[in-house]
Amino acid sequence: MDLAVESALRVAIMEWVRERAEANGGFLHRQELLDYRIGDRDLALIDFSRGIRNPAGFASTLSIVSSANGPYDDIEADDGLLHYAYRAGDPFTGDNRKLRAALDTGQPLILFRKEVANYYTPVMPVYVVDDYPEERAFLIALDEAFRYMGDLHDLPEPQRAYARRLAKQRLHQPAFRTRVLLAYDTRCTVCSLRHGALLDAAHIVPDTEPAGIPTTPNGLALCKIHHAAYDQNMLGVSPDYRVSINREVLAEVDGPMLRHGLQEMHGRTITLPARRTDRPDRDLLAWRWERFTRQATSADDAAHAAARRTVHTHQRGPSSRS
Ligand SMILES: [Zn+2]
Q1: How many A from CA of 265 to the centre of ligand 1?
Q2: What mean pLDDT comes out for the span 3-32?
Q3: Residues 82, 92: contact at Cβ < 8 Å?
Q4: Which of 36, 64, 226, 257 could be stapled to 222 by a disulfide with Cβ–Cβ 3.0 to 4.6 Å?
Q5: 196 vs 312, which has greater pLDDT?
Q6: Which 3-state string (H, E, C) describes the chain?
Q7: For 160-204, what is each residue's pLDDT tens digit?
Q8: What value, to the nearest 5°, has the Cα angle with vertex 190 and ends 184 and 196?
Q9: Which of 205, 203, 184, 206 lies closest to 195 in space, CA to CA?
Q10: pLDDT for 203-237, tens place per residue?
């Protein structure tokens, strides 16, 4: 196949994967990936048994699968790069050969992270940036720039920090969203909205805190509006799973979004994941709840102070006019 045709196919495939994933909530089901067709050609996008997908006629690999509990030691090292283990057998033939070809051609690949059985989070484009025969692993980076950074064994700290930041944004956060959304059956835990594209995974303890790790018990599946309200402490979730709307918002008068979308959520119980191990951790909820209620208390104090000022002004009013 002509390289220009292959490149155009990759672009079209990645566009489709991105659109599908967005509509679903950031992930694709195995069957969607296996059933993919372009024009009149069947073109499965993953090879879930081997991990490396090398379609006939492609000069280099189209996609790779990486799973935390897979048969290979695909590790993300301290350098922020994915060390992708060679597949079994001769490192210079078969699947490994076309993955090595991607190192020469610089063609972008799709990395599918298998987070939950049968579900894949696409991360793309990714690039094969080096080959470590001593480790029997290819190095996969999220930015093409790593192809030109010289010896990756000895990367300066700023570049390592950049790689780790990229990994957090483009690998860990999407993976967290997939795990949390699937745990909650792709529904907002507060209002039950069921549109993956409108759902986020919210951290209970934010990821700027040491305890703010991207695990399902530190997550809540929330629609965009409830996520923003949660982050702004307009909406809280107590350790016994009750939704609370802050008093100021409860007292406001406005249109249907405020009334139905926020005020009517007050007092509801969140919908929990079916699996006990996926449920939100009560200690983490308590940590966050304490901040929500503390903020509510200070808002009350501010309201009382404002009320006192108003009374004061009224009392003073007539004398100041005279
Ligand atoms: Zn919602």
Answers
A1: 9
A2: 96
A3: no
A4: 226
A5: 196
A6: CCHHHHHHHHHHHHHHHHHHHHHHCCCEEHHHHHCCEECCEECCCCCCCCCEECCCCCCCCCEEEEECCCCCCCEECCCCCEEEECCCCCCCCHHHHHHHHHHHHCCCEEEEEEEECCEEEEEEEEEEEEEECCCCEEEEECCHHHHHCCCHHHCCHHHHHHHHHHHHHHHHHHHHHHHHHHHCCCCCCCCCCCCHHHEEEEECCCCCCCCCCCCHHHEEEEEHHHHHHHHCCCEEECCCCEEEECHHHHHCCCCHHHHHHHHHHCCCECCCCCCHHHCCCHHHHHHHHHHHHHHHHHHHHHHHHHHHHHHHHHHHHHHHHC
A7: 899 989 988 999 999 999 999 999 999 999 999 999 999 999 999
A8: 50
A9: 184
A10: 999 999 999 999 999 999 999 999 999 999 999 99
Please give the structure tokens belonging to residue 92: 């210079």
CA of 85 to the centre of ligand 1 (A): 41
The total number of residues shown for the chain amounts to 322
Query: Letter for the amino acid at 135?
Result: E
| Paired strand residues for 28 | 120
SS (H, E, C) 55-123: CCCCCCCCEEEEECCCCCCCEECCCCCEEEECCCCCCCCHHHHHHHHHHHHCCCEEEEEEEECCEEEEE
**What tokens does 170 get?**
């483009």
Pairing of strands 52-53, 41-42: unpaired
Å from CA of 167 to ligand 1 middle: 28
> Rounded to whole angstroms, how far apart are CA atoms 176 and 74?
18
- pLDDT at position 314 over 90: no
Q: Ligand 1 centroid vs 268 CA: distance in angstroms?
A: 12
